[in-house]
Amino acid sequence: MTVFRVGESLxxxxxxxHPFLDAPFHVLWSRLTAEHVVADxxxxxxxxxxxxxxxxxxxxxxxxxxxxxxxxxxxxxxxNEAWGLVGHLDGVCNGPALREAHNAVLPAVSExxxxxxxxxxxxxxxxxxxxxxxxxxLVGVQRRFLEETLADFRQSGADLPAETRxxxxxxxxxxxxxxxxxxxxxxxxxxxxxxVIEDEGRLSGLxxxxxxxxxxxAQAKGLGTEERPVWRFTLKGPSLTAVLEHADDExxxxxxxxxxxxxxxxxxxxxxxxxxxxLRLRQEKAALMGKANFADLVLERRMAxxxxxxxxxxxxxxxRIATAFNRQCRELQEFxxxxxxxxxxxxxxxxxxxxxxxxxxxxxxFDEEELRPWFPLEGVLDGMFRLSERLFGIEIRERESVFIExxxxxxxxxxxxxxxxxxxxxxxxxxxxSRGVHLGSFYADWHPRDxxxxxxxxxxxxxxxxxxxxxxxxxxxxxICGNMSPSVAGKPALLLHHEVETxxxxxxxxxxxxxxxxxxxxxxxxxxxxxxxxxxxQIMENFCWxxxxxxxxxxxxxxxxxxxxxxxxxxxxARNYLSAVSCxxxxxxxxxxxxxxxxxxxxxxxxxxxxxxxxxxxxxxxxPLRTAPPTMARRFTHLFASPVGYAAGYYSYKxxxxxxxxxxxxxxxxxxxxxETGHAFRDCVLSRGNSEPPEKLxxxxxxxxxxxxxxxxxxxxx
Length: 718
Fold this sequence. Notes:
The chain has helices spanning 34-56, 66-92, 96-116, 120-130, 133-136, 140-156, 162-192, 208-220, 237-246, 250-261, 272-288, 294-299, 307-340, 352-364, 377-392, 497-514, 534-541, 547-553, 565-573, 579-596, 601-605, 610-617, 637-640, 652-670, 675-686, 694-702, 709-714, and strands spanning 195-197, 231-233, 394-399, 401-403, 419-421, 427-433, 438-445, 457-462, 476-481. It is of the alpha/beta class. The chain has four domains: 10-159, Glutathione S-transferase Yfyf (Class Pi), Chain A, domain 2, CATH 1.20.1050.40; 193-261, no CATH class; 277-367 and 577-714, Neurolysin, domain 3; 372-527, Orthogonal Bundle (Neurolysin, domain 3), CATH 1.10.1370.40. Strand 6 (427-433) and strand 7 form a beta hairpin. The protein is globular and about 85 Å long.
């Protein structure tokens, strides 16, 4: 096998294999090494270009669904899948070699995708086909595919003059590179920060689980000794949250908080300039497309329809909860004042979570840490799978898996049936329907590590199709990743309840992909309007709060007993604690997102102070604090880590909460574990992807349009 390195000629590797291109359904991760990225993606790109060129030359008298729409999808699949593998590894195994290889081919890949829907010959072919009797006969999902494809071309700028199209194409390529650098800066600045504590007395208030995790982290880094142990804290979710919520040492909390606000804000990882450039590029693109702003451009085909309507949704919800929000903020400040015996005690940003947790305990005699023993990760997963099996008529089984070092060989004694994974902690599962038919498979990777990006996410590696005509079923392949509390001190990984919600959330996305029954891959699963995509994920979170469903997965890791009735009652009582504050936090993110991509885009892009601008637009959205924290925009990867992502779309989380609260009310009426209701949700939503407009899918399940009141009732804000 010839080794290919960045910068060498492609001709030197033409005799080597191409593992990213030849990846089987059970991916051979040990073969997917950085040295193959440039060669394989270059070959994939050339192949895609050749197929697109051939497609453009299709005889205009022989146009059909198969020779146009299906041919386009088939032309792109090899590159889509190969590039998806590279992008996935960039998120879970990031290192210098892979990053260099990824960034070496990123411009060419971005240029190809940016130019695809600006290709004049391709657009001419589709426009010609759309006017034929053959196209007029299309119905169902094929008609939907044609309509969506035509809309993709128009929204991308296919009707623009040639010179303008070229500029739009260049903007897309620039955005891909700038947003990639933004993402790398967030990861690198997060990993660069650590705090090593030598005095155990400073850990007062921290749960034992957090202490044990910090000790284990230090030991893994070779820090401290058995006689003189030390504790290492980082900016990864479990570590950061534990300190800010529980540490009695204010100086410790402040130091960790200051570390967190420095992510993407300090040299050499300062994202300020990149943020301005991203906004400038997006605004220029919107203007070239004839739109007032980027929000109007990206929301044109989503449920909101425009930036103004999305902003109106956020503003309306803000008005509905503002009174409760102000009251809850005031009550938290008053609680602190009472505890410190002061007439007034304004909160500092490194104090808010700490005093909120103190007050929760005082009001409800409830500490979320109490629930950890009932949420061992493996038990949560097993229960979640059984719950899903009952609701959706499926079977989920773990397959034997094996980790092989990159470039290594399968260890002796390991079954050939064992499925390769990319890290020793990763597991592999299969989903089958009630008749035993293989619908899809997925990988699960749950714990933090330095080479892995933060947060939690679902993605797909292969999109299958149901059996159509003589074509057999092709199963789906997806993945689910997180940064959950790891196993420490000989105990299994014990999760917090909000981490359990995150697991259910991402699994909802995964089900949306794996249960898809759409014959067109581009319309399957999560390829839906952005403000509809969170419905399947967020509806799953509801099952973490119902006694009937909770008993499926909440079992004490030592005794197997369910959550005691008294503890469950306290958990429910505390559910809506500071609900207006939590809701307003999400609305603030949405308001900032829309502001930066609408009215303030040009000002910030031109040099206006980012923090001052965001602070002004969020007046009335933020908890009153003595020290105003800088905006999180510089580390907000949802908005700035990809050319579009959640940009101008963060409101969709709240939008989808309206949908999920409403849809779950049907489960509550008909039975939380009612298989008929679950099957209806699968048939109306999960299996149908983007085969029909989201408004229709919602009405098919609920029999009416969405009702905001269900969300307010669930949040105790009605």
